[in-house]
Write a structure and sequence with these properties.
Largest sheet of chain A: 22 strands, antiparallel, barrel
Mean pLDDT of chain B: 92
Number of strands of chain A: 58
Structural class of chain B: mainly alpha
Number of helices of chain B: 20
Largest interface: A-B, 103 and 106 residues
Distance between the termini of chain B: 83 Å
Low-confidence stretches of chain A: 1-40, 124-140
Radius of gyration of chain B: 26 Å
Order of helices and strands of chain B: HHHHEHHHHHHHEHEHHEEEEEHHEEHHHH
Helix content of chain B: 40-55%
Largest sheet of chain B: 2 strands, antiparallel
Oligomer: heterodimer
């Protein structure tokens, strides 16, 4: 029965897919069809050069008709054919020429194939006739001025509008940045303007040649930013959106662009989980909202949601959508914020070749102070006299053996350019890193290719391609269980006794035998264990945008991403762990396929110069598919097979495979309404359907609204010219989070091995989960109040936001009575709040020859659990598996932040004569660990008062891994081609629970210790809080190993020199800069571990997604400090 | 005209939506509703229960180790181990104890697996094969509840698959006596419908008629129903030939993983094989009982007998030699237990000496654990018969069979332990059988049950002769506390006295 059911749906599904395929083809054909009827390629391809001085319109027409196949059709009364004009154009298409010819006139033109139809344009009737333009057209008293416009780097700027100030006389620079214009003799000032550049005005004063250099606008109030399904002028935003500039993303070499976002935008908390090349970053926008599901933001690249972020070098800009008004357009995935990435594209003009290259030398950030051999022997023998005797001891510094100088080579070559109808950008980048730990290596090769075509007058098409290969030779670090067989390189580096050598006399690795348990030494683990992975990512996004009417366009995108990876692991017989099983090889494969189709209309119209309306509405379909397979084999004939010949093993382990699919289907709409450029309103709604949710709750609606008031535009502000911008914003909305695994609402069976027949393992099937037919999204309601203030012509720009977010219907594994056979069930329960304050301050301190800009951002977020099932604490244990006995290490408790550390309060050590607090498993000797008695029970209820004994009631919250606030400060200085950039990033008030130090400093003598062992309690050294050395100490979760993880880090400092134009002349190079920079050179912190920027993932399998298991440190790969030299060249 | 054509686009996207019903079809995963359609499906569902019973959360570690630690034969070796184990051993566990928190839910998961199987099977045509499968499932349900009821007393008793956990969210505990009656009913069904031998004759990991009789004898022995205990044990002894039950010649072979499959002495066994998928098919007893750091086994020194267990045990007893390791190699040097690294006591050797895997793969052994073996049936018969008729020749004969085998010192005949003196009194014989069980079945997860059913706690844990003194022992310690988490979720669940 079941099987036929399945088949029939599968058939239906494939039927649907076929129709979908046909449909997509149809859409494509319709595009082609439209091409045929709407316009001819001729009008777009034919270019004309005209030079008419003081000629009549009719003469111009004749000239055009003689040079081309165009025919003018018009009624006599529409235009005055005798009207005199001056016209000088070079290589322009007909529409551009007609634009100039009929600018500000009441004539409208339409190009139909080769016919040009002229009709009266009633819409401009009311406009007063521009006297100056009439003058220009009628009076020959003019002179010609010429010139060239370049950017700060000396590159020609095409498309700059050059006008005579106060008139409409003007033109646009050509592809070489040149212009030639007839201006009235009495013209006083020429104005040069270009989007994103500061407008320049130059007095004519009799000059006829103008060579002008434009510089980028300080803070572009007119800057256009991406907002998801569209763009918008920054000044028109009513939501909270942070932008990160391209140059900040490439300030230093990064593996992932995410790394470059750290410290760059308020409200965006980026944290490295460890320093291993290629490891993931934990990103939270305005805090962590979910108890159980991911709070990772949604990444949208050029309109393709949920794909990989391209490499930093290929990114034009990054916008971070933060408040509900901005994110609600992404509905069920907007709750965690959205990172919009716009990749670079070509500009009309000469082909630009850009080459960037850098080399970085790296070294470990810091080392731990560990015991040397003599002290180690004293320490161990104090615990067990006579354990280490003899004289044959080495003094190996394992940190020196394992850490090495690392290096990064980073190259990028980009070629871009285009003409008015086609823009291209092609870039290739190579990143190659040798890690600071032996044998760790990471390479990345990527290609970005963006092509935009104005295929027709009304149709734009384009394709964005991004391909990536990553290759990683990893190390074992942050091991989930650790212990004898599974020790990672980093934990072995600090734990291994200094007394042993790296190698035996026969060249084999010397094992560690700290407590009689054999372990591999760290060099053996680093060198011998093969951990290698390779990933290929290919994402392509095709778009077509059709201008249906002047104010209405339709855009459709088809995106496809495949991400395939292969992971291989081989533990050879040269390692202790591989010896007894004769080697173990594992190979994993994974493939993820995402498809996306977006279709939306955008209507924008201005009514009476007062009401500005933009309405966007559309539909999306997405599908995700994830495949996984694994094979493993043991008992190999030889280590030489590595993991590439698993059949060479003779003990095949159970293979594994799985498939997970999900779909998302949505309708969305957004209305922007602007009145008098002062009052802004945005309303957004998205109706989302996700397959991941239960059958009764597949669909959800996510609305938001925002208002903003541009106070500076009000007339009563005219008297305060110092205020160039003042905008108040307010928004409210509801967004969702659907980040649970697929099938979470279904009752499922699982297979388990069950030993049965004749010692043969048979598989069994057993109930695993119960259904929840009402399971649905988490909902986050957010309100935001913000202000944007610009002073002194935008030289000081301050943005401040306050937000409050409440996430309800948490996807929560609600506990079930366990005698039901089920421990818990996915359900919607509980709520969490986040509230915070964000500040961004950008100032231009000096703007002359000496330039100094400062960007500062500050974010403060307070996270609090509001509601849990029955209000009961949820106790959780996270620790390396071999550190048994630690028990609960964090707690979910109403009124406290997620991830709060849990344990006893450490009160130093007991002294002789102290009263020992009784309690099972607690030390009651002088020199023993002393914990505080804070609570007791009476009649089964906690009293909150000490009861004279230690037990589990005395555990409490002992730390909070969430920072109180984070900030970033960037200063750039520039003087005559020399630039200096200083970037500082900081986190304050976050606690770290270090299992590394726990293990090192437990004073149990089971492994090496930090030098704090020298201060351990002994009858003669009593003034200390380090307990005495004893083998019989239990591991107890306490405040002893919770540290303040605050830090201030000089993330980057760089000095660059731009070669002057005089040197470059004739070389074909238009821009060249060399620079020297340093990363992580200084870190101010009290944290005694390797690096405060850490997040132990453990064996929880939660990756960076967990919001509860955060702030732990164990065996993590330390960060590096680097010195980088680089060169940037443009041709 | 252009516009009218464009309007098709949104209409087409509407069509896509029609296709997207957002229904999940979890390929490669099974949905429970209507899963059981054939005899094979019933078997597959029953296998699920075996998997759970053999898991680390149940017999592989947590529950079996808890039973072991509660007895007086096994103490904690390394007191820096997990506190929950120490508390179980020291009789100061509370209702949030992590061992209970692990095996209590797994016991009920096994129950849910067999309930699912029985529910599915009962809907099929009741052939002999189907009834045998139901018998097998009921045997496993009885086994699981027999353990639960002995550990916790009154317990939530569920005999239907739980499709909606809300349905059982407010039930109260079922009285111990009612649970026992349900266990007896299940076993009676099992003994009537299970085959004498499994089609594959060597199978000991699935119950036969003999297994059901054996467990019934144990249930009656526990209840003090001596006559029924004797009757059922006697049936097994009388039918040993056709059930293919017999004592192994060499006591050591009982604990040799290479010889355990299909072993005639095993009446019902839980099997392990290398290739675990945590927590399933994981056996931690070798690790728990082994010496840490020795060449023989990379053990963890958790379940280690007190020194008194070794020193009070006659050194002439071959079973002591098999059961315990009083010397071991460290870096290829053989040292006595006084020089062991860490805990300087003899360690249990039954589960690692021939565990079938290298010393490091200590949680992934090939061991089979006898839940019942023929020697125990003989001792059960002897004990029950003594209560009914006194130390008759028949009763003494059963003990003598067990002792005779013990005299075979790896092929060499010895004279220890001698046959039971024919003039023994009834009381002395009772004591003798219990002592014989303590040594013959040492470390086989039996001793605590004997202490509990004979209410010997105050005797064996107190005073100068206690193998493992626990002066805090009192009668409330015979039961463990009901898991607090479930009491928190269901206010109708009461707690045992003393917790």
């Amino acid at each position: 029965m079941k099987k036929t059911d399945f088949k029939s749906t599968a058939f239906l599904k494939s039927g649907c897919k076929r129709v979908l395929k046909i449909m997509k083809l149809t859409i494509f054909l319709i595009f082609l069809g439209l091409t045929g009827v709407s316009a001819s390629v001729y009008s777009q391809s034919k270019k004309l050069t005209l030079n008419v001085e003081n000629g009549s319109i009719r003469e111009v027409f004749d000239l055009i008709e003689s040079q081309s196949e165009f025919v003018f059709i018009y009624k006599k009364n529409v235009i005055d054919p005798a009207r005199k004009v001056n016209l000088k154009v070079e290589d322009l298409t007909i529409d551009k020429i007609l634009d100039v010819l009929f600018r500000d006139s009441d004539v409208k033109y339409e190009i139909l194939n080769r016919q040009i139809i002229l009709t009266p344009d009633r819409s401009v009737k009311s406009k007063p006739v521009d006297i100056q333009s009439v003058l220009q057209l009628q009076q020959p008293q003019q002179k010609e001025v010429t010139g060239k416009v370049t950017d700060a780097g000396g590159l020609p700027l095409p498309g700059v509008s050059v006008i005579v100030k106060g008139t409409t006389i003007g033109m646009v620079t050509n592809t070489d940045g040149e212009f030639s214009l007839n201006i009235p003799l009495n013209a006083e000032t020429l104005q040069f303007s270009f989007v994103g550049m500061k407008t320049v005005e130059i007095a004519v004063e009799g000059k006829t040649t103008f060579n002008v250099s434009l510089t980028e606008e300080i803070v572009g109030i007119e800057e256009v930013v991406a907002i998801g399904y569209g763009t918008m002028r920054k000044s028109d935003l009513s939501g909270s959106v942070a932008s990160i500039k391209a140059e900040d993303l490439t300030a230093f070499p990064t593996i992932q662009a995410m790394q470059a976002l750290q410290g760059r935008a308020s409200g965006v908390h980026v944290q490295a989980t460890n320093g291993e090349p290629g490891s993931d970053f934990r990103v939270r926008i305005r805090g962590a909202k979910s108890i159980s599901s991911s709070s990772d933001p949604l990444i949208v690249v050029d309109g393709f949601p949920g794909v990989a972020m391209p490499v930093s070098e290929d990114i034009q800009s990054v916008e971070v959508l933060k408040d509900a008004s901005a994110t609600a357009i992404y509905g069920s995935r907007g709750a965690n914020g959205v990172i919009l990435v716009t990749t670079k594209s070509g500009k009309a003009g000469k082909t630009t070749i850009e080459f960037n290259s850098s080399y970085s030398a790296q070294k470990v950030l810091n080392k731990l102070d560990l015991l040397k051999t003599a002290d180690y022997i004293d320490y161990v023998n104090e615990i067990e006299p006579g354990r280490l005797t003899g004289s044959d001891f080495k003094d190996t510094d394992w940190q020196d053996e394992v850490f090495r100088q690392g290096g990064i080579q980073n190259y990028q070559l980009a070629i871009s350019g285009g003409n008015e109808n086609a823009h291209y950008y092609v870039s290739g980048a190579i990143y190659d890193q040798n890690g600071i730990v032996l044998d760790s290596k990471f390479d990345r090769y990527s290609v970005t290719s963006n092509l935009d075509l104005q295929a027709l007058k009304n149709l734009k098409v384009g394709v964005k391609l991004y391909a990536l290969r990553e290759h990683k030779n990893g190390t074992v670090n942050m091991e989930g269980s650790g212990g004898a067989g599974q020790t990672g390189v980093l934990s072995a580096t600090v734990l291994t006794e200094p007394t042993i050598p790296v190698y035996n006399e026969d060249g084999s690795y010397h094992s560690s035998f700290m407590t009689g348990l054999e372990r591999d030494n760290p060099v053996a683990i680093a060198r011998e264990m093969a951990i290698e992975s390779e990933s290929d990512n290919l994402q392509a996004n095709f778009f077509g945008e059709y201008q249906i009417a002047k104010n209405l366009k339709f855009r459709s995108t088809f995106g496809a991403q495949t991400w395939s990876s292969r992971y291989g692991n081989y533990m050879p017989t040269t390692m202790y762990g591989g010896r007894s099983i004769n080697g173990r090889g594992t190979i994993d494969g994974r493939r993820i396929t995402n498809l996306s189709n977006e279709n939306y209309f955008t209507f924008s119209e201005n009514f009476n110069e007062i009401h500005d309306v933009t309405l966007m509405a559309g539909y999306t379909y997405e599908s995700h598919r994830s495949e996984f397979w694994r094979a493993q084999s043991e008992n190999f004939l030889s280590d030489a097979f590595d993991f590439w010949n698993l059949s060479a093993g003779s003990n095949y382990r159970a293979p594994n495979s799985s498939l997970t699919e999900s779909e998302l289907s949505s309708y969305y709409a957004r209305l922007h309404y602007k009145m008098f450029d002062r009052y802004l309103f945005t309303f957004t709604g998205r109706y989302d359907g996700s397959s991941k949710f239960a059958k009764n709750n597949k669909w959800g609606f996510f609305p938001s609204g925002a208002v903003a008031w541009n106070i500076a535009e009000e007339t009563f502000m005219d008297g305060i010219p110092q205020i160039s911008q003042l905008k108040l914003r307010g928004s409210y909305g509801i967004t969702g989070n659907q980040s649970i695994a697929a099938y979470g609402s279904l009752a499922l069976m699982r297979t388990i091995p069950s030993v049965m027949i004749g010692n043969e393992v048979v598989n069994a099937v057993t109930p695993n989960t119960v259904a929840n037919n009402n399971l649905t999204w988490e909902k986050t309601a957010q309100r935001d109040i913000g202000v944007d203030l610009g002073l002194f012509d935008q030289r000081i720009l301050l943005t401040a936001d306050y937000y409050y977010m409440k996430t309800t219907d948490q996807l929560f594994q609600v506990p079930l009575v366990s005698y039901s056979g089920y421990n818990n069930m996915w359900s919607n329960f509980g709520s969490v709040e986040n509230k915070g304050l964000e500040l961004t301050l950008s100032t231009v301190n000096f703007n002359g020859d000496f330039k100094w800009n400062t960007d500062f951002n500050f974010s403060r977020n307070r996270n609090k659990v509001l509601e849990l099932p029955d209000g009961a604490d949820v106790l959780r244990s996270v620790f390396p598996g071999h550190m048994v006995g630690i028990g609960t290490t964090n707690v979910l408790r109403e009124g406290y932040p997620m991830g709060s550390f849990f344990g006893y309060i450490y009160d130093g050590v007991y002294q002789e004569g102290d009263t020992f607090i009784p309690g099972g498993g607690f030390e009651q000797v002088a020199g023993g660990e002393k914990f505080r008695d804070i609570n007791g029970k009476q009649d089964g209820e906690l009293t909150g008062q000490p009861d004279g004994q230690l037990n589990s009631d005395d555990r409490t919250i002992i730390g909070d891994p969430n920072p109180d606030f984070i900030w970033g400060l960037n200063n750039t200085f520039e003087y005559k081609g020399i630039d200096l950039n200083v970037f500082v990033q900081a986190s304050h008030g976050n606690d770290i629970y270090s299992f590394t130090l726990f293990e090192l400093e437990l004073m149990q003598g089971f492994n090496n210790s930090t030098t704090s062992a020298l201060d351990r309690w002994t009858p003669t050294n009593t003034n200390t809080d380090v307990p005495r050395a004893t083998a019989s100490r239990s591991r107890i979760s306490s405040s002893r190993f919770v540290y303040d993880g605050s830090y201030i880090r000089l993330k980057n400092v760089s000095v660059g020199y731009r070669l002057p134009q005089s040197l470059l002349r004739g070389s074909g190079i238009s821009y060249a800069r060399i620079y020297l920079s340093g990363q992580n050179l200084i870190t101010l912190t009290d944290y005694p571990g390797f690096d405060p920027e850490v997040n132990y993932l453990g064996s929880t399998g939660m990756g960076t997604t967990s919001n509860v298991n955060v702030g732990y440190d164990y065996g993590s790969y330390p960060s590096a400090k680097s010195v980088t030299v680089g060169v940037q060249v443009k041709f | 005209m252009k516009l009218s054509k464009l309007y098709i686009l949104p209409l087409l996207t509407l069509f896509v939506l029609g296709c997207t019903d957002l229904v999940e079809n979890p390929v490669g995963r099974l949905i429970p509703d209507g899963f059981i359609k054939t005899e094979k499906d019933v078997q597959t569902a029953i296998y699920g229960a075996y998997g759970k019973i053999a898991s680390d959360n149940y017999w592989g570690r947590e529950m079996a180790a808890a039973i072991m630690l509660r007895g007086d034969m096994v103490d904690i070796g390394n007191r820096s181990t997990v506190a929950a184990r120490i508390q179980i051993n020291d009789f100061n566990a509370n209702s949030t104890n992590a061992m209970i928190g692990t095996f209590w839910p797994m016991a009920y998961q096994a129950v849910d697996a067999v309930n699912t199987a029985i529910d599915g099977a009962e809907a099929l045509e009741p052939t002999t094969e189907i009834k045998a499968l139901i018998g097998e499932a009921k045997f496993l349900r009885a086994f699981t509840y027999f353990n639960l009821v002995r550990l916790f007393g009154d317990i939530p008793y569920i005999d239907e698959p739980v499709k909606d956990p809300e349905a059982v969210a407010t039930i109260s505990r079922t009285a111990e006596s009612t649970v026992y009656q349900s266990i007896i009913d299940d076993l009676n069904y099992a003994k009537e419908n299970l085959p004498m031998e499994h089609p594959l004759e060597d199978i000991r990991s699935r119950p036969s008629k003999g297994s059901a009789y054996t467990m019934l004898a144990d249930v009656y022995l526990t209840m003090g129903n001596w006559q029924e205990a004797y009757t059922h044990a006697k049936w097994v002894i009388d039918n040993a030939g056709s059930l293919n039950y017999a004592l192994e010649a060499d006591y050591q072979d009982l604990f040799d993983s290479g010889k355990q499959d299909g072993m005639p002495e095993h009446i019902f066994a839980i099997e392990y094989k290398r290739g675990s998928a945590w927590p399933f098919d994981v056996d931690s007893h070798a690790a728990f009982s082994g010496m840490s750091g020795s060449d023989e086994v990379a053990g963890w020194t958790v379940t280690v007998p007190s020194l008194a267990v070794y020193s009070t045990w006659d050194s002439r007893d071959y079973r002591r030699k098999v059961a315990l390791a009083d010397s071991a190699h460290y870096s290829e040097i053989l040292v006595p237990y006084t020089e062991f690294q860490g805990t300087k006591r003899p360690h249990i050797a039954k589960y690692w000496r021939f565990m079938g895997v290298p010393r490091d793969l200590v949680t992934d052994t090939e061991n089979n654990y006898a839940i019942y073996r023929f020697a125990e049936v003989l001792l059960t018969a002897a004990e029950a018969l003594n209560e009914v008729s006194g130390p008759t020749a028949e009763a003494r004969g059963y003990v003598n069979q067990v002792r005779a085998r013990a005299r075979n010192w790896a092929g060499t005949a010895t004279d220890f332990p001698a046959d039971v003196d024919a003039g023994i009194s009834k009381d002395d014989f009772r004591t003798l059988v219990l002592e014989e069980r303590r040594l013959e079945l040492s470390f086989e997860f039996k001793r605590w049950w004997d202490i509990k059913r004979r209410q010997m706690g105050n005797e064996v844990f107190k005073g100068p002769n206690a193998l493992e003194p626990h002066e805090n022992f009192n009668d409330t310690k015979y039961l463990l506390p009901i898991r607090q988490r479930d009491i928190d979720l269901n206010e109708n669940l009461s707690q045992n006295p003393g917790y």
